[in-house]
Amino acid sequence: MKKVVTVVGARPQFIKAAAVSRQIALSGGLIEEVMLHTGQHYDPNMSQVFFDELEIPAPSYNLEIGGGLHGASTGRMLESIEKVLLAERPDSVLIYGDTNSTLAGALAAAKLHIPVAHVEAGLRSFNLRMPEEINRVLADRVSTQLFCPTEAAVRHLAAEGTVRGVHLVGDVMYDVALHYGQRARAECQVLHGLGLAERSYALATCHRAENTDDPHRLQSIFSALALLAERLPVVVPLHPRTRKQLQHHGIDGLLGALRVVDPQPFLAMVALEQSAQIILTDSGGVQKEAFFYEVPCVTLRDETEWTETVELGWNRLAGASTRRILEACELMFRSRPAVVGLAPYGDGCASQKIVELLVCAP
After folding, report:
1. Computed over its alpha carbons, how large is the radius of gyration of the chain?
2. Considering the domain boundaries, does residue 32 fall inside one?
3. pLDDT at 340
4. Rounded to whole angstroms, how far apart are CA atoms 14 and 16?
5. What secondary structure does DSSP assign to 27-67, as a single string?
6. Rounded to an integer, what distance in angstroms lies between the CA atom of residue 99 and that of residue 125?
7. Cβ(259)–Cβ(233) below 8 Å
8. Which of 77, 45, 51, 44 lies closest to 62 in space, CA to CA?
9. Which residues touch 350 (CB under 8 Å, ≥6 apart)?
10. Residue 65 maps to which CATH number?
11. Ramachandran angles phi, psi of 322, nearest 5°
12. Are 30 and 2 in contact (CB under 8 A)?
C-alpha cells in the first residue's frame, strides 16, 4: 500500500480532491490517503454538510493557517506541512491548482525529497502579477508527476523544458460536473427558495484580488452588474472579502440592484450554475463549470488559463470595463454558442487515471 498526503487549502480544492479521493477509495486499498487542510481560506460553508455533500471525510489535519501576507502565510504553512510529512512519511504528496497551499505543499515535500504530484499542472495565464501564476510555475518545477487537464497545458510545460513525468489525464472538474450535476438538479431547491425560474437570471461571482483590491475595477464590475440587473435578475453569492472591500471603498450601494446571497453550499452553487441564462465570473473553476453545463460565460479578467472555453465560443474576456462587460453579455444574448462536440477537458475519467498513475509510480 502507498501512502499519499493530499494538501488542500480552499473550498475549490476540496471539490477537486473529492473526485480523486473517491477513486482512491475504490482502488481496493492500494492507496492510503491522508487529507491535510492548511486552513488558507476560511469558508463558513465548509461545515460537515459540505463534506457530506462531497461524500468525503473531514481532513485528518487542519493547520488553521489563514490570512496575512503571502510570504508570511506561505512560510507558516511550509513549516507546519513539513512537520506533518515527517510524522506521516508518505510515498508522495498530492497538490491541486495554484494557491499558496499548493506552493507550500510542493516546497515542503520537495525539500524532504518526497515526490510531488500536481493536479492541474501546466496551466498558464502568462501574467506574473498574479500570485496564482507564480504558485503554478514553481509548483510545476518541483513536481515529479504533472497531471495536465488539457493539451495546451502539456504544450506549456514542453515550452518550459518539462516533459518528464507529464501526463495528459483530463480535468478532474469535468469528473465532478458529471458526478454531481444530475444530483444537484434532482436534490437542490435553491431556485425555488430564491423565486427563480430556469434560464431567467444571471449568476455572478467576484473574488480575485486583482478585482477586489482595485477600487476602480471593483466599481466598474459592480456597475456593470447593476446595469445588467435592469434586464434580468443578477444573483451574486457574495464572498465576505468582496463585501468588505465594497464597503471599504464606499461602493456597496451598488448591491441594492442585485440579488445578493451568502456563499452557497456546493450542490446549491452547482444548481445555480446549471440553470443560469448567463454567468459572469473571475473564477477559473466557475468558467469551466459554465462550459460543462453549456451556460454562456463572461470572464471578469483580462486573461484566462482556460483558453479552450474562449476558442469554442462559450466564454468572452471582458476585464473590468463596464462597457466591455455589457457588450460581452449582449453578444452572448444574441448568439448562443453551438453545442460542443469536442472534449477539450477529457472523458470524465481524469480521477481514475490519476489514481492509476499514483499506484504505478516508482
Report:
1. 20
2. yes
3. 60
4. 5
5. TSSSEEEEEEE---S--TT-SHHHHHHHT-PPPSEE-----
6. 14
7. yes
8. 77
9. 19, 147, 149, 169, 170, 171, 172, 174, 175
10. 3.40.50.2000
11. -55, -45
12. yes
- 131 and 160 assigned to the same domain: yes
249 annotated active-site: no
Tens-digit pLDDT profile for residues 265-287: 889 999 999 999 999 999 989 99
For residues 354 and 169, the answer to whether their CB atoms sit within 8 Å is yes
Please give the single-letter amino acid code of residue 34: V
Do 62 and 123 meet the contact criterion of CB atoms below 8 Å apart? no
C-alpha cell at position 188 = 437542490
211 and 139 co-located in one domain: no
Long-range contacts from 207-214, C-beta under 8 angstroms, 24+ separation: 207/239, 207/241, 207/242, 207/282, 207/283, 208/282, 208/283, 208/301, 209/131, 210/129, 210/130, 210/282, 210/301, 211/282, 211/300, 211/301, 211/320, 212/239, 212/241, 212/242, 212/245, 213/245, 214/320
pTM of the model: 0.87
Please tell me whether residues 329 and 240 are part of one structural domain. Answer: yes
d(Cα 161, Cα 166) in Å, to the nearest integer?
11
Tens digit of each residue's pLDDT (9 = 90 or more) over 310-359: 999 999 999 999 999 999 999 999 987 876 656 899 999 999 999 999 99
Same domain, 162 and 210: no
Please give the pLDDT value at position 43: 64
Burial 330-352 (b: 16+ CB within 10 A, else e): eebeeeebeeeeeebbbebbbbb
Q: Among residues 37, 41, 207, 239, which one is catalytic?
A: 207
Does 243 lie in the same domain as 98? Answer: no
